[in-house]
Amino acid sequence: MQGLDTERPRPRAAKFRRLDQRELKQLELEFVQFLASQSIAAEEWTRLKANKPQLAEDLIVIFSDVVMEKVLSKIKLLERRSRHELHLYQCIEDKITWVGIQIANESPLDLSGDDIQKELELIFSEQSHQAQLLRAEKTCGQHYTMEIFKLTQSGCLISQNKELFEMLRKMTNQQTE
To answer: What is the pLDDT confidence band of residue 44, given thresholds at 50, 70 and 90?
Structure first.
């Protein structure tokens, strides 16, 4: 078993999170391939679970980290919405660009709905709505996937709304010019 400490006294901590039973079941074929890459056949896996449950658990944690790293590295855009706030995070290589808009609590507009384009048009066509555009960038280096994981844990969802991100990015660029 390559790189695995068979005498480990403490459980291995997941870098991200341990996959749950449902997720492991869905990834059963990939897990079997992972075990094979560690030179662990089906019979040996059965023995490990029975005789060295902590080692078996460590293997599940390592597999979970491999899966999570792969999934997180593919995320390109995250989104978090509430009634008065919209946040979009573009994730490219080792940098995360954040753009957002925040409207006053007393505003009747709702940024959490499906027709966000219409709501944004109302905000910027009628000067009566107090809105604040937000923008920041963060270079993450080797902690890139951990930053994405933290965003997902804080309520961000994977988004495909590139147009909305670009629209807000252009608005924040105009604001700083």
So the answer is: very high
